[in-house]
Amino acid sequence: MPASQDTIRDLFITGAKNLHAVEKQALSIMTPQVKRIEHYPEVADQLHRHIAETEQQIQRLDDILAEFDTGGSALKDAGLSLSGSMAAIVHSVAGDEILKNSFANYAFEHFEIAGYKSLLTLAEDGTFSKATSLLQQSLAEEQRMAQWLDEALPTITRRYAELYSEGGSSTAKV
Q1: What Pfam families does UniProt report for this protein, alphabetically (predicted)?
Q2: What pLDDT is recorded for position 132?
């Protein structure tokens, strides 16, 4: 038996709030990273672009949630933002910070992609057509960033190895 429209609506709202918090977490991960990057300008450029996209994704989720007379969850937003900040701090002391950040960003983009795909399924089943187009836009942005990371990882790794061989891990980190 298919889920009722009330169930789909409730799950959709919960999913949108969760994704809102995930996007806040993404900001708390990327913002400290981009501030520390010295030797990887292409990574810094992509992070700046994706931070701006993420801010728009949060606004889109705010708009979607407003259609249901609700907003993001302050508790979820704060909790995930804190965990993102902690991850950024942990990576900053790693000898291979740029690599760890790249791995984490790659995984996180795919986590966001999965979240948007799931939410899109609920939007389609619930016939929330206004939400669908906004979610598709955000999904496309996440897919572009994941693709960029996928293609850039060999270059980042080689650059890290080059800098490491020139001056040790402290030069190669960021």
Answers
A1: DUF892 (PF05974)
A2: 97
Structure-token pair, residue 41: 């300008």
Tokens 């902690």 sit at which residue? 86
Q: CA 93 → CA 6, 7, 34, distances in Å?
A: 47, 45, 15
What are the structural domain ranges in the chain? 5-172
> How many CA atoms lie less than 13 Å away from 69 in the CB half-sphere?
0
Block mean pLDDT (10 aa), the chain, length 174? 92 94 92 90 97 98 94 55 52 72 94 97 95 97 98 96 80 58
**Among candidates 22, 37, 138, 31, which has minimal Cα distance to 80?**
22
> 5-172 falls under which CATH superfamily?
Ferritin, core subunit, four-helix bundle (1.20.1260.10)
% helix, strand, coil for the chain, step of 5: 85, 0, 15
